[in-house]
Design goal:
By secondary structure, the protein is mainly α. The chain contains 19 helices and 7 strands. It is found in: Membrane.
Length: 563
């Protein structure tokens, strides 16, 4: 076995000062593990602010259950779509390192203002609570404005931080080096494992603090965690590898030019394309046979003499790689709609159930989200240590199964989790009727909250397959210059899914309420029909999975990668 040279440099990357980097003292797991630690701190901060958000809106700001769920979905959707903007700024202007630092500082500011908003005296609520008769409570307007401003500032900061930190972590591995390429594949598993551990601790600790101590403390601790994460990230600066592609053309300009040129050449027929390929001596494997209309961008029409109008074959293939992602992105939206329920209606279900463990202590309903993380942690270990080595023996692939196979299996598990959720909700409603609690929304239904655990655990196992698979897929299948955009495309699935969930809730609420009808999302959950909503999501998910399988079967992996 050859001993690696201590002064072996890594091509295509430099250190913070712009100098060539040595392999043995830069990047790799040395830097990636540090970046995973930073992400754990960021996830602790984010989940600390978001995991119990629906209860803050209903209990502190006195919003209805449906309105609170819609606000959570809209905010979650915004937070998941903003990475598209953050990734664009990072890949085209600021660079990932600077974007992470700026967004982290904004993160701290947003969480600090969120803490201040929770600490403000709610004069309207105090007056309401002191009244002898029940009156509708109105929170302090200043508190509401400051709360939502700081909340969306956190979302804006997350938009810059999330796509860049993951892409920057994966960039610490050299794809041309066999060992580092193998380590990079494991990086995404360990990345999601770290996120899950952060979530596991956060939802248990912070939901208890917020429900039993104070909301200002519940938002203040995540702020401190984010300060710690920023400090750790800065400490690792000297070990990081930075991309050395400063003089490359803007990737958006390059890819956009392919589409524009192809449209301009729309009248070019297939004979001219074939002749151009033959003239340049292109072999069939140099040019994929899908999306052939984009090949028109690579030739100059006979009527034109401007050679600059033609795009290179590599540029055309880059554009094709982006366009091939669209069907996968669209068909995964149903999974994202299902996933958004764990932070809204699942929590409100838990509030109505028996949450007592011992006398005087109740489990915070939001803490059950920790079982998602627990499911991820357990299933990831089994997946990495048992399933993948076994699958390698049958498929011969380094990763055992393809990324799309992994995603599809997770989507199937998410459907099963919604079936379980619908059945448990049906049991909850039946128990409420049997004990005459239908008209008593504040009463505790004599059904243990642990009945909700299976649907949370199934969510976690599904995430191990689909969410981790999507992260690796969208990072790996885009051109290397715009991998922050690839990560943000993955995140945008969940942002769009949250908006679609909010749209579904609004539409169903309008259709099922009024004229004496009982809304599926009635404030009294004992009269509502969340089970109907869950069954609807099962149907949508089945359609989404069927469409996904159709597109996945014809998908051609970029760079010949099927892992």
């Amino acid at each position: 076995m050859e001993t690696p040279l201590l002064d072996e440099t890594v091509e295509g990357v430099v250190d913070y000062n712009g100098h060539p980097v040595c392999r043995f003292n830069s990047g790799g797991w040395r830097s990636a593990s540090l970046i995973i630690g930073v992400e754990i701190a960021e996830r602790f901060a984010f989940y600390g602010a978001s995991s119990n958000l629906i209860n803050f809106l209903t209990d502190q700001l006195h919003q209805s259950t449906a309105m609170a769920a819609k606000n959570v979905n809209v905010w979650s959707g915004t937070a998941a779509l903003l990475p598209l903007l953050g990734a664009f700024l990072a890949d085209c202007f600021l660079g990932r390192y600077r974007t992470i630092i700026i967004s982290s500082a904004l993160y701290v500011l947003g969480l600090g203002l969120l803490t201040l908003s929770a600490a403000l005296p709610s004069l309207g609520i105090s007056a309401c609570q002191q009244a002898e008769k029940f009156l509708p409570c109105s929170p302090n307007l200043v508190q509401v404005i400051l709360f939502f401003f700081s909340l969306y500032l956190v979302a804006f900061a997350k938009g810059g931080h999330e796509p860049c930190i993951q892409a920057f972590g994966a960039d610490q591995f050299d794809e041309q080096h066999p060992e580092e390429r193998k380590a990079k594949s494991s990086f995404f598993n360990w990345w999601y494992l770290g996120i899950s551990l952060a979530c596991l601790s956060t939802v248990n600790i912070m939901s208890y603090v917020q429900d039993n101590l104070s909301w200002s403390l519940g938002f203040g601790i995540p702020c401190i965690a984010m300060v710690f994460g920023l400090a750790v990230f800065l400490l690792g600066t000297r070990t990081y590898r930075f991309s050395n592609r400063k003089y490359e053309e803007n990737p958006f300009v390059r890819i956009g030019r392919v589409f524009i040129t192809a449209i301009r050449n729309w009248q070019v027929n297939s004979t001219e394309i074939a002749h151009d390929e033959e003239t340049h001596g292109l072999l069939p494997h140099h040019n994929s046979k899908q999306l052939r209309f984009l090949d028109k961008a690579s030739i100059v029409p006979n009527s034109s003499k401007e050679e600059s109008q033609a795009c290179s074959i590599n540029e055309v293939e880059e554009a094709k790689a982006i366009l091939r992602l669209v069907p996968i992105w669209v068909t995964c939206l149903t999974y994202a709609i299902v996933f958004s329920q764990s932070s809204t209606f699942f929590i409100k279900q838990g509030v109505t159930l028996d949450r007592s463990i011992v006398v005087g202590f109740e489990v915070p309903a939001a803490s059950l989200q920790s079982f998602i993380s627990l499911g991820v942690v357990i299933s990831l270990v089994i997946y990495d240590r048992v399933l993948i080595p076994t699958a390698r023996k049958f498929t011969g692939k380094p990763s055992g199964i393809t990324m799309l196979q992994r995603i599809g299996f997770g989507m199937l598990l998410s459907i099963i989790s919604m079936v379980v959720a619908a059945l448990i909700e049906g049991k909850r409603l039946k128990t409420a009727r049997e004990y005459g609690l239908v008209d008593l929304p504040k009463a505790t239904i004599p059904l243990s909250i642990w009945w909700l655990v299976p649907q949370y655990v199934l969510f976690g196992v599904a995430s191990t397959f689909t969410m981790v698979g999507l992260q690796e897929f969208f990072y790996d299948q885009v051109p290397s210059r715009i991998r922050s955009i690839g990560v943000s495309l993955n995140l945008s699935i969940f942002g769009t899914g949250s908006f679609l969930s909010s749209f579904l809730i609004s539409t169903i609420e309008k259709l099922t309420s009024g004229d004496g009808k009982q809304s599926w999302f009635d404030n009294n959950l004992n009269k509502a029909h969340l089970d109907y909503f869950y069954w609807l999501l099962v149907g949508l998910s089945v359609v989404g999975l069927a469409a996904f399988l159709c597109f996945a079967r014809t998908y051609i992996y970029n760079k010949g990668n099927t892992t």
